Amino acid sequence: MNKIKKHLTSYQYSINGIWLAFRYENNMIFHLVAAITVVIVNSLLKVTQTEWLITLILIGLAWMAEIFNTAIEKLADQVTREQDPLIGQVKDLASGAVLIICIVAAVCAAIIYLPYLLK
Ligand SMILES: Nc1ncnc2c1ncn2[C@@H]1O[C@H](COP(=O)(O)OP(=O)(O)OP(=O)(O)O)[C@@H](O)[C@H]1O
Predict the structure, then answer these.
(1) Is the CB–ligand 1 distance for residue 27 below 6 Å?
(2) In three state form, how does the secondary structure of 58-86 look?
(3) CB 3.0-4.6 Å disulfide test: which of 6, 20, 45, 105 passes with 116?
(4) How sure is the predictor about 3, in pLDDT bands with cuts at 50, 70 and 90?
(5) Which of 65, 55, 36, 60 is nearest to 111 (CA)?
(6) ipTM
(7) How far is the CA of 46 from the centre of ligand 1 (A)?
(8) pLDDT score of 29 more than 90
(9) Does ligand 1 have an atom closer than 6 angstroms to the CB of 90?
(10) What is the pTM of this model?
(11) Is the pLDDT of residue 17 over 70?
(12) Atom of ligand 1 nearest to the CA of 98
């Protein structure tokens, strides 16, 4: 019973983490708008089951990368708020991870949607 309670409490912490990401990271709103747009476009274009899966996985990956990026930024700020070349690199690396998944998502969106739009 104690284990179940502990498990359920950990979900509370995780949900709090998502809430914190929205509070600290303005880009989270952009990701939310992008995710809602993808769901609407998928429904309108009646994309296939595989295309739904690919787009939903990409949405999840983008959100995951942004939340990790926010966590790393917070940790880096806790280490020092002074100008530090290594802290700068750490933040750039984390931000690079978000950019990569966003570029991949944009390319995949073009590959999936263009054939429907050019029909
Ligand atoms: N302490 C620091 N020392 C050196 N460079 C830093 C430091 N803090 C930030 N930077 C540089 O400034 C960039 C922006 O950092 P910042 O913490 O402002 O994130 P941000 O651009 O506001 O990110 P986001 O928009 O995701 O919140 C970093 O990628 C890094 O290159």
Answers:
(1) yes
(2) HHHHHHHHHHHHHHHHHHHHHHCCCCCHH
(3) 45
(4) confident
(5) 55
(6) 0.90
(7) 40
(8) yes
(9) no
(10) 0.90
(11) yes
(12) 26
Which residue has 């309670």 as its token pair? 5
Instruction: Report the 10 Å Cβ neighbour count for 42.
Output: 18
Instruction: Supply the residue whose CA is at minimum distance from atom 15 of ligand 1.
Output: 91
**Structural domains of the chain, ranges and CATH numbers in brackets:** 2-117 (1.10.287.3610)
The verdict on the CB of residue 2 being under 6 Å from ligand 1 is no
Cα-to-centroid distance, 110 and ligand 1 (Å) = 30
What are the tens digits of pLDDT across the range 52-102?
Answer: 999 999 999 999 999 999 999 999 999 999 999 999 999 999 999 999 999
98-101 CB contacts, 8 Å cutoff, 24+ apart = 98/27, 98/62, 98/65, 98/66, 98/69, 100/65, 101/58, 101/61, 101/62, 101/65
